[in-house]
Amino acid sequence: MENWTEFSENPTLNTGHYMALIFDGTPEDYQMNVKFEGGLTETEWDFDDDDNEEARTRILFLDDPTEQTLTVTLYSSVLEEPIVKVFTFDVILKDPDIDFSIITVPGQQGATVLNQVVSSLQDTDVVIAPADGGDDNEFEVTGTIYYKQGFTDYSPELTEQEGNYLVLQITTIDPDDADVTVFVNENGFTKEVENYESQYGYFVVRVTELTVQITIVLEKDGQSASFYYDPTGLTLNAE
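Given the sequence above, the corresponding structure tokens read:
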């Protein structure tokens, strides 16, 4: 959590990882003392047998669980000496979920991508719009893309050097240091589009009548998000 000022006004304590503990109370005639220490916090609490769950709940700030301990001591007149239990922590500190977002647009007509001017590959009517009835990460691509021959910079494979090509540009990525990978699904087979250019965000996809989806994947710190583009509404000019 970030900026949890209700927990502490101290900025070193109001951002981080927290654990909530509920104490079930103690048997009648017993008193319980709980001490949590290590890392950035050290505090001591006194409890009695209270039916109020909120009163029995404590929030712990976990700086480094491997160095923090929780000591529970039971006192009673019927005990010759207090009962002491010491707990150590074996938890995974999960990073906060990343709010991935992206803005993708058709390539600018005057731009040069893979040694081709975008206007020689697609018309000005190419549009990216949210998919009708789809989720926030689903889009539709419509418009006209031209037939191109001898596109050797697209691929060393002869079968990939001729056809219809779509140029897209990623203009905004949040977080902006996320890794970007582009995939194309054609007739049920998915392969990576390896010409993504990170400086200006351009990439080119060869589209056929069998191309059913283009996917952009953002990754950072072990988390990822996918964005899906449906190209089936494109008009593929013939040779």
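DSSP finds no helices and 18 strands in the chain. Try to locate this feature in the token string yourself.
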